[in-house]
Amino acid sequence: MAAKKTTTAAAKKAPAAKKAPAAKKTAAAGKRKPNAAFMKEMTPSPALAEIVGSKALPRTAVVSKIWEYIKKNNLQDAKNKRQINADDKLKPIFGGKKSVTMFELTALVNKNLS
Length: 114
Known about the structure:
Layout: H1 2-13, H2 36-39, E1 41-42, H3 46-52, E2 57-58, H4 59-72, E3 83-85, E4 99-101, H5 102-111
Antiparallel strand pairs: 1-2, 3-4
């Protein structure tokens, strides 16, 4: 009988499952405020300016314009849509590479903004 009591006592001492923390409520219930770093206007390099223009733009707008250019010129790889093939205007931005993944794109674009 003593053995049964110890196993029952051990089961009772097991830690209970933790509850998920309550989500924080913001003043504007469903709307997020954009991050100021993304909305800061940046000047594109001369190579990047050939695609997006020389006017200062936020990073988000620059990436959107590059995607417009990629789709307009059919530069996404047909088999692997994550891969972007470079043309003459994109090669300097891609650091001379023939193709990059869409995940590398933002980092490469940021190097061409000041």
